[in-house]
Design brief:
The protein is built from 3 helices and 5 strands. By secondary structure, the protein is of the alpha+beta class. Strands 1-2-5-3-4 form a 5-stranded mixed β-sheet. Helix 1 crosses helix 3. The radius of gyration is 13 Å and the shape is globular.
Length: 106
């Protein structure tokens, strides 16, 4: 069968819906997840949707492992991947759009 190694999700605030719908595929293949997120605990959907989806990912063994950082005017594909976890804004503190990378450590 075919494998899913990476999932890139950039859906303008609908990340929870996409992740929720993809849970079976995620659980089966445990892909690297690259997600553009516009949230944090201040996001309007945090309590009703996002918190539950990210808790489910955490329960599967997913952790935040990186953040793709690019400045204004940066072309697609440019920028750098920050993997020092002490320098990455986590789910609880992200207040702007961020490109976060999650990996399963199980």
């Amino acid at each position: 069968g075919e494998r899913v190694d990476v999932m890139k999700i950039d859906v303008e605030g609908h990340e929870a819906s996409v992740l929720n719908g993809a849970m079976q595929t995620i659980a089966t293949h445990l892909p690297l997840l690259y997600i553009e997120v516009a949230w944090g605990t201040a996001h309007p959907a945090w309590a009703s949707k996002n918190r539950h989806v990210y808790a489910a990912l955490k329960d599967m063994g997913y952790v935040l492992v990186g953040e793709h950082v690019s400045g204004a005017g940066t072309k697609a594909g440019e920028g750098s991947l920050v993997t020092d976890r002490s320098k990455i804004a986590g789910l609880e503190t992200a207040t702007a759009t961020r490109n976060l990378v999650f990996a399963c450590e199980v």
